[in-house]
Amino acid sequence: MSTPLATPTPSGDGPAASVRDAVKVYGKGDTAVRALDGVDLALEQGGFTAVMGPSGSGKSTLMHCMAGLDTLTSGEAQIGEFSLATLKDTALTKLRRRSVGFVFQAFNLIPTLTAKENIELPLRLDGDSPDPEWMREVTSRLGLSDRLEHTPSELSGGQQQRVAVARALVARPSVIFADEPTGNLDTASGAEVLALLRAAVDDYGQTIVMVTHDPNAASIADRVQFLVDGRIVQTLESPTPDTVFETLRSLSAGTNPES
Amino acid sequence: MLRVSIKGILARKLRLLLTSVAIVLGVGFVSGSYFLTDAMRGSFDDLFDQATAKIDVEVRTSQYVKLRTAQDEGVLVPIDLAEVGMSPETLSRIRDVDGVRQAEGLIFELGAQPLGKDGKPITEFGPPSFAAGWSEPAKDLSVLRIDKGRPPGDGELALDATAYERSGHELGDDVKVLIQGGRTTETFELVGVVKFGDSNNLNGASITMFEPTQLQGLLDMDDRYSVVDVVGDPGIEQDELSDRIADELGDEFHVVTAPELSAESSEAIDNSFLKYLEYIILGFAFVAVFVGAFTIFNTFTILVGQRTREFGLLRILGARRPQIIGIVALEALVVGVVASTIGIVVGYGIAGLLRVLLNAFGFEIPNEPFPIEARTIIVSYIVGVLVTLVASVVPAWRASRLSPLEAIRTTSTSHDRGWKVPAAGAVLFVIGAVLVVRGLAPADGASTEAVLTSLGAGFLVTIVGLAMLSRLFIAPVTRVLAVVFARGRTGALAKGNVLRNRGRAATTASALMIGLALASLVLVFYASLQATVDDQIERSFGADVSAYNNTFGGSSPTISDENVDKMREVDGVEELAVQYYGTAIVGDEFDLGAESPKPYVAYSEGAVGAGEGLVRAKLIDGDIDPGSEIVVSDEFAEEHDLDVGSDVELAFPAGDPQTLEVQGIFEASEIIGAGMLVSPDTFLDTQPAAAHGAAFVAIDVADGTKPSTVVTRIDQVLGDDSKFIEVLDTEGLKQFFRDQLAPIVGMVFALLSLSIVIALFGISNTLALNVFERTREIGLLRAVGGTRRQLRRVIRAESILVALFGAIVGVLVGVGAGAALISALSDEGFVFGISPLAVVGVLIGGFIAGVLAAVLPARRAARTDVLQAIATE
What interface predicted TM-score (ipTM) does this complex get? Predict the structure, then answer.
């Protein structure tokens, strides 16, 4: 058989996901807030992108809109070749199921299901079952092989987050969105999860975009996009903790001198 | 603190309103029962006041009053009017009493039933039909008045306005009348329409009016009257007049003033059907309230659980434990008051619906606003508020028990795996079972009331215990059910949701369980009665065809000798036996005050045999000979301490008391239908002529002839009379007995629907609360690719699992209790019966309840805003 563990099938050669001139406005009239103010971003296949920015900069909104959880006020969002604006709820949900993986900060798992059932959930919802070899590869790689029959309450925070990563990987989505995946974890567990995400990109060619506050976390990405007031103000290639930290400091000094 | 309670209620008003649906319905039935019966009581009181408005005193014989009372209470005892009516001599004596201005004999009796244009009795069921006499002098004392046409003379009659309208007859038509329950049939010309004061009839009871002498002849009254009504001279007090007449006549007469008569009549109505009507409706109220208590308990438990943090915060801010309990109790109080208030309004509506229903059956309950008695309002509030408070006590106590820090840290508490609830449930279950067993095998001399109380209380305590125990076995049952009803990934999610809080799921299911357990119990009882009757017909009925008169006019319907003779002549009738039905009292006097009359039967010679013949008796001792003086059932023998050879003294409605020697003892059976079997000669000597008709005819069909052919032939010979004489083959006879049980089926269905409706709200409410609690989880499911449809499917499967669990346990409990009841009654010849179809029906009802209950919560879950749900705190 040909490379079963190869890159998750992207559609064509274009970016795994992208937004063009993305604008998102919450509210109306005087109280309107422009959470996204014309963002252009393309996630190249097999790339690891971190999104950083101060609170309220629009990071989460950007991620939700790219993942099809929220709709743009104007502009265009695409996953693979699909333009999200044209899809109805059910079609969008099914696209999410197949093409998007999620890792959240907290509450990542269904408490009544075992680790294995949680990992298989998106595929099962599709009436599909995971490729057993791929399942074994992912779970052993994430160190979950002997934890599969446990329910979330019997797992540590780090283990729970690894189950979430496994769930995101097992369906081989076009892109994984990780929202502060280390936010609730201690340093050691956090580092472990980050290493696993990095490995997913390096070894399996997985596309990942991660929202984070933590310069250390951001530095494992291939590049960091800095968002301020709904706009991408800077892109940092091959970041290190120091360069990320520096950039953040210069941004907060430049955009918000009073604070 | 009040403010906290009120804000708490306002924040959850829809939730609490849904919870209180059960209380609303329960209180609705309580108040509705009172509204309706008060209105009926009021209209009867009005009627009786009207009826007695023109007279001062009424005189009847004491024996007549007793017999009429027995009839009102449903004992089919014939009245020998020639014996117990008011004689002309007595009338003269009354007229001679000082102070009497006018005294007249009036006739008002059962026993003449007019047929409509279609040949069927105008009133086939419901209130009775009376015959009244009309005479020129008596009309001044009677409230009856001619509304149309003229008073009836010889060979004529008048109908009341309602009967006239229903009969299809016109003035001048010939009207056929069944006399004395069908013993004879006569034809009269319709010449008038009467009204009862302003009413069209007697609150539903119909009146046919005849010329008095003719009516006396029809009813074998000789020259007697039912009553003598008296008007006093101006200035004389009613009491004084009544005393004077009583002094003149002595003990054998019952002399009452007009107001006393009115009160007596009202009391009689109260004790007969108004009381039963009240019991039936209150029974529904009880089920609603009992089931409702579970729903409320569950909702308060969940709401309190969700507010644990809030209570923790209040505790930190200085609230004491009693204050926390107070907040919850106060909320319960407000919910109880609001629900009771709505319930009273709903009850008014329920009463209105029942009025429409009863009026369709021929009652004439006036369409006026229902009287609102203080008692109705007070009882309604007590029931509604008390139940709500009791149901909220445990959750309130739980809320106060957590330490403040514990409370503020937990997100939601579950009291799932504890041993206390199941242990308490087990204790209750055992106590209940002991009470049931004790009720089933009562100690000697225990009163029926004590037995029923023990049974009823036992059943309820057992059910509460089971509801608490059921969380132990909800897991395995749900797993099995899930194989069929919750398949795939959504099914696994639904199963997980049920199992994660077993206590909650079990309590939710309990609401359905209780209602369906009650319904199944009645169902088993009903099916067993049917099986018992079928069994007895097969074992002890040797005839192929039977006939009876299906009219109901308040007196026992019979078949005339003429019609019996016609049947005997029909080709294919090999042998024909007649059953006579009468009542007697054990003792030397037919004294209805001391004892209620016992039925006895007689068959034409040779009809009854030991294990053979048309009616087969199972002999236990002695013999059945054609000349037997009396044969008694084992039950009767035991009750009166009789053996073969013993003498038993019986007093009858007519003739002298007789002492008869017991020749044999047979096993009691529905077919023989009485504890005593006498010879036809004895019967004819001891019953008034009015009761001499055949109550039942049993026919043996010649070999080679189909029973159904004979049925058709008999119908032809009977001509018009076949419209009220029912001729049946064996299958038809079984059906006839089944039909008599039909009201039970109606009750079961109504009970079932009511409990399902209430349980439906309970399940729906719990699901909605679950959905609310799991907002984040649902959001996560949506994010990783669950469609709205799949979410709805999860909630629906969850609902079906809970509902089916409740239905299955309920059916098992009901069937089990029914089986226990029947086995306890097996000495009485009861055979266990169950209708698998009905059981499946009950389960399907549970399933449908599950599907319906899920509709709103599922919609709500599907609408969950993903972004809001996954937003981190």
Answer: 0.77
CA distances from B330 to B2, B291, B333, B385, B393 (A): 8, 22, 5, 11, 11
Task: Identify the pLDDT of residue B547.
Answer: 87
For residue B362, pLDDT over 70 is answered with no
Model's pTM, two decimal places? Answer: 0.72
pLDDT in tens, B775-788: 888 888 888 888 88
pLDDT digit string, tens, across residues B380-401: 999 889 888 888 888 888 777 7
Could you tell me where the beta strands, DSSP code E, fall in chain A? 17-26, 33-43, 48-52, 74-79, 82-83, 100-103, 175-179, 208-211, 223-228, 231-237
Interface test with B, best of A96, A105, A112, A123 (most B CBs within 10 A): A112
Tell me if B259 sits within 8 A of B469, measured CB to CB: no
The helix or strand, by DSSP H or E, that contains position B769, with its residue range, turns out to be: helix B742-773
Instruction: Output the DSSP codes for A225-258.
Output: EEEETTEEEEEEES--HHHHHHHHHHHHHHH-TT
Helix, strand or coil, per DSSP, at residue B611: coil
Q: For tokens 């969380």, what's the residue?
A: B471
Torsion of CA B623, B628, B629, B634, to 10 degrees: 30
Residue type, B384: G
- CB crowding B316-355: b at 16 or more within 10 Å, else e: eeebeeeebbbbbbbbbbbbbebbbbbbbebbbebbbebb
Cβ–Cβ < 8 Å for B784, A90: no
Residue B669 phi/psi, 5-degree rounding, is: -150, 150
Shortest alpha-carbon distance between residue B392 and chain A (Å) = 29
Rounded distance between C-alpha atoms, residue B339 and residue A68, angstroms: 45
Checking if the pLDDT of B812 tops 50, the result is yes
Q: Which residue of A has its CA nearest to B492?
A: A113
The residue among B435, B683, B443, B688 whose CA lies nearest residue B581 is: B683
Residue B809 has pLDDT above 50, yes or no: yes
- Rounded Cα gap, residues B662 and B121, in angstroms: 41
Asked if A94 lies within 8 A of B787 by C-beta distance, the reply is yes
Residues of B with CB under 8 A from a CB of A: 488-490, 492-493, 496-497, 499-500, 776-777, 780-790, 866-867, 870, 872-873
**Candidate from B500, B789, B866 with C-beta closest to A69:** B866
What is the bridge-based pairing of β-strands B630-633 and B647-651? unpaired
**B697 Ramachandran zone, left/alpha/beta (phi>0; psi -120 to 50):** beta
Q: Which residues of A lie closer than 8 Å to B, measured between beta carbons?
A: 64, 67, 69-70, 89-90, 93-94, 96-98, 100, 102, 104-113, 117, 121-122, 124-127, 167, 179-180, 183
B554 pLDDT higher than 60: no
Site of tokens 């992207």: A10
How far is Cα B164 from Cα B166, in angstroms, rounded to an integer?
A: 5
CB contact under 8 A, A107 and B500: no
Q: Write out pLDDT tens, residues A96-155.
A: 888 888 888 877 788 888 899 889 888 888 777 888 898 898 888 888 889 899 988 888
Structure tokens at B543: 């005839």
Kindly state the helix (H) or strand (E) to which residue B257 belongs, with its residue range: strand B253-257
| Cα B134 to Cα B107: distance, rounded to the nearest angstrom | 8
CB B644 within 8 A of CB B619: no
Task: Give the list of residues 6+ apart from residue B212 with CB closer than 8 angstroms, or none.
Answer: B105, B107, B133, B134, B135, B138, B225
Beta carbons of B777 and A110 less than 8 Å apart? yes
CA-based angle B117:B122:B123, to the nearest 5?
Answer: 165
Q: In what order do the strands lie in the sheet with A208-211?
A: A100-103, A175-179, A208-211, A48-52, A223-228, A231-237
Contact B289, B382 (CB under 8 A): no
What is the three-class DSSP state of A57? coil
The residue ranges of DSSP E strands in A119-194, in sequence order, are 175-179
